[in-house]
C-alpha cells in the first residue's frame, strides 16, 4: 500500500466545536487546500475516511456518481451513530443511489420545479413581509436567529407539507435537536440514545401523518409522498417517513442558516449592505454569495466502488471520501478573494447545493426564500448593529448561527 497522506489539520472534520469557531475552521481548511488536499483521517470513534478540500476534486467526485456512491455512508457520523441509524433503517434521498434515487426523487420533484416555485412566490413574498413587519413590532432588539430566521423558512416548508401550524414549534424543536446533537445548548442530551430518541419521535409523528393522508388525501406534499407508488407499489413505511424527514429538516434548517449568516455578513460589511440597498438588482447575486458564504451543509460523503485516484492519491475500493463544501466554497483557485463577502460576485460557482444527480431538490425554493426576505428587509433597513457576540452551532454536518443578537431600525 502506498503511504497515506496524513495531516493533523484534517482532524477538524471530526471536531464539532471547530465549526463553532470559523477562524479556527477556515485556517485548518486553507492549510489543507495548500498542503494536503486529499488527506487520510483516522480518529477515535470514527471509521477512517479521506478528506477532500479542493473545489475541483469535490466536483469530480460529484460527477462520478456510479464510481463514488452515497451508500452506505452518506454523511460523517461516529461509528456508534452509523450503526444506530442503520439499525433504525433511516433511508432518505441522501442515502440512495440510482436507479432507486432517481425514482424516489421524482415523487417530490414537481413540487420544487420552476412552475411550482412561481406559484409559491406570492405566498413567500407575503411571509417575508410578515416577518420583517414582526421585526418592526418587536424592535429595536432581537435574537435574529431564534426570533426570525428559524421561523420564516419553517413556515414555508411546513405549509407545503400541509402540517398544522400548531405543530410547527414541535418540528422546530425536533430539527434543532437532530442537527444540534453535537451542541451542548441545542442537543436533548449528550447521550447517543437521546439523539436517536429524537429520530424515533419524528418517525412516530410522520407515521401518523402517513396514515392520515392515506385515509384522507389532501392537496399537499405530504399526501403526494404518502400515496406515491414506484412500479405500482407504495413506498414502505420507513421510506415514506424518511422522505418526510429529509423534506422537513433540510427544507428549513439550511435556509434559516443562510438567512441568519447572510444578515451577519451584511452587518459586518456595511459597504456591501449599502451597495445592495442602492442597487437591489444585485439581489440574485447577493443571494448566491450568502449561500456560498454560509454553506450550511458542511459535508457529504461518498464511498469508492472501485480502486481509483484523486489528485494522484490512490483511493481503494470501499474507502470513503468526505466532500468538504465549507472548504470548496473558499477555494482560492475558483473564487477571487474568497474571504471577501461580495454581493455582486460573478461568476459564483459555489457548490453549496451539491452537484449532479444529488443536486439539492429544494435549491430553487431556498434561493427564492432568501431573495424574498432580503428584498423586503434591505430597503427598509435604516440601521443595524450587533449587541453581543454571534454564536455558531457545534456540528459536523448541517449548521450555522444559533444566536445573532442585533439592534436595528426599520421603516414601517
Automatic annotation (TrEMBL):
Superkingdom of this protein's organism: Bacteria
Q: Does the keyword Nucleotide-binding apply?
A: no
The alphabetical list of record keywords is: Heme, Iron, Metal-binding, Monooxygenase, Oxidoreductase
Q: Chaperone among the record's keywords? A: no
Give the cofactors, semicolon-separated: heme
> SUPFAM superfamilies in the record, alphabetically?
Cytochrome P450 (SSF48264)
The Swiss-Prot or TrEMBL record describes its family as follows: Belongs to the cytochrome P450 family.
Record's protein name:
Cytochrome P450
Higher taxonomy:
Bacteria, Bacillati, Actinomycetota, Actinomycetes, Mycobacteriales
